[in-house]
Design a protein that fits this description.
heterodimer; A: 73% helix; B: 533 residues; alpha+beta; Dipeptide-binding Protein, domain 3; 6-stranded mixed beta sheet; 4-stranded mixed beta sheet; 17 helices; 18 strands; 28% helix
């Protein structure tokens, strides 16, 4: 439904196709949703789909290649890769989703006043954005993760949200800048509405389509950041099955057990690819 | 300070004989004729070199390089026996408190300056002086008058005398059976006063000493050592050693295979089965135990590890065989003292892997459903720690792994109430049981922060045995006391010994002298040489 809200002039001219036909007309969105559904399905049904516990070690000291018992093989501690991959989807999606909510909250908090008030407020807030953007986000995330007293799901997604809000803030500012000149905003102001009311009741709702696009992109980035953090040893503590952590171990075994790198790599690709396809489609329709 | 010109005698005594005569057995195929002249040796390590100042170097790699640049009075043979190095001989007084050294004639620093006993006196005092800021000075605290120098109230140490250019006398506060071991550490190496005083802190990057090599350059992550022209010891024919630091472990093997490295610092666990199954590589692999024991430390003053039954349960729960397999090479530990250590007790059985017995002990201790705890680790121990985590989960103990930077890790587990348990490794300062048992388990080494006895283990009987051993002169009766103490410690289980470290490396076919040494970790750079190809 949200997608229909801002379907572009092309579709609004013709009769709105429904259901499968509607999706067929938007193959990018359809593929993206399908990929995302696969990952969400894996995450939700992990306990039923996984052939083993993601933590149980087969007491080995080297990775086992794929076999009937371990469909995708095991890691170097003898843990089933498929099970870790399925449970890993839960953490990746949770972090991708929640970190994006954090990023949206901060981005709105910064972008709305910057775009609405302009001038000094805009200048100050946007310089703050520039400062944060000046650092490569992975570096900033590592620095933040390093000063954490300890890492768990909450702190890791907070770190990712904290480095991932700048795009949201910029987009929100740009949209607000355009919206505040619109007649309905001026009307609200003329009727005596204060800035708080105008921003929340009149401008914010109009940002929803934009935010949906930014959110899908941002969730992809968050998942990549999480994988990056875990890969650098700054992610969730062991033995949490996390895709980045699996990739990290794969690096050591890339000659002896190359399959270790393939599966988590494919998982990240599917998730981030799916999210980006959705975002790309939404963005294209808005133009 | 008066430089005395000695007639350089074509000698070099015992040292040369020892150095040349004691090659590792089974190396016959390699011992072929003269070494390659003017050879370059290319090495890489995964770690960093922190300092090249003998007064500060303490970690494996820094001391390995320092040892190639700066040597001292005594050294080890291919095992743990002490042999003369820059001293040609020494005598110990009957009361064990005075050592008289005679220096080898004709030795010079790598800048050409002659070496005198006064230089040794200066070098030892330099470590003691507060302005040097050396963490290693406590090793020399046993020398008479050392405390005054350490406190800054005296410039010179009364117990260090240089009555003649080739004679050095060291007087101790009490007999110390391990004193010569301390003198074999790199912190006792001789350095020239003229250079060290002028360089100050900069000496760490521009060291001068007496060694087969001298530092040519240290730029970025690459160190270049060149042959020291003033060195009178064994000439290996190697002109230059290039050492690349901070090389990723994952590229060691490809670079070795591309013949860009002459010796790898280790064989990665992931490559071990490949190396062992390849007949050619297998021949070029070197592996031997070194004096390091890995263990699981438990704070005996923190719940639930204050209960000996819980600590014993942990000992029964861990799978030592697997711990020894995970790094690629290792020997399951039955005690704290490793096999290369004098005093090692081959009769110790250790705790078997018996989860049922562990659960039983936990029930007796009042933890029928197990408990939760936190294990402090650094990232390097992660894989092995995860295996322990799984072992303990099997008996109901839920372990959260807290992986932090090494500095934080070490501060935490050595602090009062810092870490309930941690994955630890101990490498002794010298091959003597005191460097293990006394340091780690004597109650005098318990302090609120930075405690060496980090398990805060306290047993008056063990203290008594360790004190007695400390006063007993070297020999079998002394070692027997340490064995007795070790048995008591293992029964009280402040630690779960896991495995003894085995060092591994790969050499190119023409490289010789890369054997693993039980005391000098990494490589003894001075011994490396190449056969002519």
């Amino acid at each position: 439904m949200a997608a229909q809200l801002f379907s572009g002039p092309m579709t609004s001219r013709a009769r709105q196709p429904r259901g499968a036909a509607w999706l067929a007309a938007r193959p990018l969105l359809a593929t993206g949703l399908l990929l995302l559904c696969v990952v969400v399905g894996a995450a939700v049904f992990a306990p039923w789909l996984a052939p083993h516990s993601p933590l149980t070690q087969a007491r080995g000291d080297a990775p086992l290649p794929p076999s009937t018992h371990f469909p995708l093989g095991t890691d170097s501690l003898g843990r089933d890769l498929l099970s870790r991959l399925l449970f890993g989807a839960r953490y990746s999606l949770a972090i991708g989703g929640c970190a994006t909510l954090v990023a949206l909250a901060i981005g709105l908090l910064v972008g709305l006043p910057a775009g609405y008030f302009g001038g000094m407020v805009d200048g100050a807030l946007m310089r703050l954005v520039d400062v944060v953007m000046a650092f490569p986000s992975i570096l900033l995330a590592v620095a933040l993760a390093a000063v954490l007293p300890y890492r768990n799901l909450g702190t890791v997604l907070l770190v990712i949200g904290l480095v991932n809000w700048t795009t949201v803030a910029r987009v929100v500012r740009g949209e607000t800048l355009a919206l505040r000149e619109q007649a309905f905003v001026e009307a609200a102001r003329a009727l005596g509405a204060g800035p708080g009311r105008v921003l929340l009741r009149h401008i914010a709702p109009h940002l929803a389509p934009t935010l949906l696009t930014v959110a899908s992109l941002s969730a992809g980035t968050a998942i990549l950041l999480d994988a990056g953090l875990s890969y650098l040893g700054m992610g969730l503590p062991q033995p949490t099955p996390s895709w980045g952590d699996m990739l990290r171990e794969a690096q050591r075994w890339y000659r002896a057990a190359p399959w270790l790198a393939v599966w988590p790599g494919v998982a990240v690709l599917i998730t981030v690819g799916g999210l980006n396809m959705i975002a790309f489609d939404l963005q294209r329709r808005r133009r | 300070m008066r430089p005395i010109a000695f007639v350089a005698m074509p000698i070099l005594l015992v040292v040369a004989a020892v150095a040349g005569g004691c090659r590792a057995p089974g190396d016959g195929a390699l011992r072929s004729g003269a070494p390659a002249r003017g050879a370059t040796i290319r090495l890489a390590i995964t770690d960093d070199i922190k300092t090249l100042d003998p007064a500060h170097a303490y970690d494996t790699y820094s001391t390995a390089v320092v040892h190639a640049l700066c040597t001292g009075l005594v050294d080890y043979d291919d095992g743990t026996r002490l042999v003369p190095d820059l001293a040609s001989r020494w005598e110990m007084s009957a009361d064990g408190r005075e050592y008289r050294f005679t220096l080898r004639p004709g030795i010079r620093f790598s800048n050409g300056e002659p070496v005198t006993a006064a230089a040794f006196k200066y070098s030892l005092e330099r470590v003691l002086r507060p302005e040097t800021g050396s963490n290693l000075r406590s090793f020399f605290a046993v020398i008479e008058g050392a405390e005054a120098v350490m406190a800054g109230s005296a410039r010179e140490c009364a117990g260090i005398q240089a009555p003649a250019p080739d004679r050095l006398i060291l007087r101790l506060k009490k007999p110390t059976p391990t004193f010569l071991n301390i003198l074999a550490m790199t912190c006792a190496a001789v350095v020239p006063r003229s250079v060290a005083e002028k360089a100050g802190r900069d000496f760490a990057r521009h060291p001068v000493g007496v060694g087969p090599y001298r530092l040519r350059s240290w730029e970025g992550s690459v160190l270049e050592l060149e042959r020291n022209p003033f060195y009178t010891g064994d000439d290996t024919g190697v002109r230059q050693i290039t050492l690349e630091t901070q090389v990723d472990e994952a590229v060691l093997m490809p670079r070795y295979e591309a013949r860009e490295l002459d010796v790898t610092p280790l064989i990665p666990a992931a490559e071990m089965s490949h190396v062992r199954s390849d007949p050619q590589l297998k021949q070029l692999a070197l592996e031997a135990p070194v004096s390091q024991t890995w263990y699981l430390g438990m704070n005996t003053r923190m719940k639930p590890f204050d209960d000996v039954r819980v600590r014993q349960a942990v000992n029964y729960a861990v799978d030592r065989e697997r711990q020894a397999r995970l790094p690629g090479a290792g020997v399951p530990a039955t005690g704290m003292l490793p096999p290369t250590m004098p005093g090692y007790n081959p009769r110790l059985k250790g705790y078997p892997h018996d989860p049922e017995r562990a659960r039983q002990l936990l029930r007796q201790a009042g933890y029928p459903a197990g408990f939760r705890t936190t294990m402090w680790i650094t990232d390097a121990y992660r894989r092995r720690a995860e295996a322990i985590q799984e072992d303990l989960r099997g008996v109901g103990i839920q372990v959260e792994l807290r992986s932090v930077a090494f500095g934080v890790y070490a501060d935490t587990y050595k602090r009062e109430n810092g870490a309930p348990c941690w994955y630890g490794g101990w490498y002794p300062d010298y091959p003597d049981p005191s460097s293990y048992l006394e340091v780690l388990f004597h109650s005098r080494n318990i302090s609120p922060t930075g405690a060496l006895n980090a398990t805060r283990y306290q047993n008056p009987e063990v203290d008594r045995l360790l004190d007695l051993a400390e006063r007993t002169p070297s020999g079998e009766p002394r070692l027997a006391l340490y064995r007795q103490a070790e048995e008591k410690i293992l029964a009280d289980a402040p630690v779960a010994p896991l495995y003894y470290e085995v060092e591994t490396r790969l050499r190119q076919p023409e490289v010789e002298g890369a054997e693993v040494h039980p005391v000098w970790r990494y490589l003894r750079l001075a011994r490396l040489r190449k056969r002519p190809s």
